[in-house]
Design goal:
The protein is α+β, with helices and mostly antiparallel strands. It folds into three domains: 1-58, no CATH class; 108-337, Orthogonal Bundle (Hypothetical protein af1432); 345-418, no CATH class. The protein is built from 14 helices and nine strands. Helix 10 packs antiparallel against helix 11. The longest helix has 27 residues, at 108-134. The termini are far apart.
Length: 424
Amino acid sequence: MSRKIDVHELRKGMYVCELDRPWVGTPFLFQGFEIRTDEELEKLRGLCRHVYVTDEPATPAVTHRKAAAPSGPSAILSSVTTVDHVRDFGAFPKSRRAPPRYRDQVSLEEEMEAARPLESGTRALIHSIMDDVRLGNSLNATPVRQAVDGMVNSIVRNPDALVWLTQLKNKDEYTALHSLRVCILALTFGRHLDLSEEELNVLGTGALLHDIGKLRVPNDILNKPARLTDQEYEIMKTHVPLGVRILDNTHGIHAAAIAVARCHHERYSGSGYINGITGDQIGLFGLIGAIVDTYDAITSDRAYHNGLSAYDALKKLYEGRDKDFHPGLVEQFIQCMGIYPIGSIVELNTGSVGVVITVNRERRLRPKVALVLDENKNPHAISPVLDLFHTLSDTSGAALEIRRVLPSGAYGINPNSFLPSVKA
């Protein structure tokens, strides 16, 4: 049972389940969290007059029926379209669940050495697949599985390296790079959700091939630099059944992987396509596919729109919870990416401006930032790296924190210029 208390009565260790204002527009983009730091106390006291706390938060009701959750890889892979596979992924932070399956094994810089050839090799593979499908040749699943396996291994060691490489966007290669980025995002999210490596391989295969049906859509529609007409949109939607047919006819593609292609345009309220299915019937892999596909699409520059910042994209996803996306999974995705995702341009309370180069998976509000501009907005000759987890105050002793996220391209800053180098 929750109780209402004045914010000045809050103490670390209390679990906040409701604010006196909407969650959207606050730094807390997911509902329900345990107060663990003085920083969180300060933010709550600055934003609210009172909040509601509970001693033992219950698991949120995100399923339509009660049943024992399946256990082990085979259970998820054999019936991934059933309701139960989303029952454990609720709104609460991972700190309220069992210890995570994965922990970073190497630094970001060390993992870059493996991630760069993986990214470039998989990009070349996608172009080869695109050529084959356009020519009517059959799809060979073996190199796809090998590429995904390599990316799974990298994501398990440290997901930030491949996530950084999703920042390398070229709108002239949108179809190919979108598939690659969606795969990386799906694997990163799946790692956060503690899926096994076997499950990650199946999810990644489906994510990499989720848009393969677009290669059978006429180019003048696929690459049209303006809004599609209603008739053109109906043709575009056929990429889903076309892709499912290609994958169904390909030996070695697991049915659960095909679920990503089949369901990534379904929406939680039933407003999606092709089948208009609703809620948890979409299945875990389809629900994940919808979130990561949308996130990459709205953060990418296209001929007809400029991409949103990662921060604004996460807010948009959050606003679409319950209607377009599974609410618990959206909140888990925000936790996965971090309140300040990699590549975000941020301004500190000192006035300095920088680029988030890596997240802190324990303290999401305290990432590492490469400082680009000083407090007077003058550029640094060499960008110093500030680790907000270890540096809590400036030289005067004042608290040091991120004040706000700036729009993409602010001050002419290109985050790709701060891509971490391979460790020697």
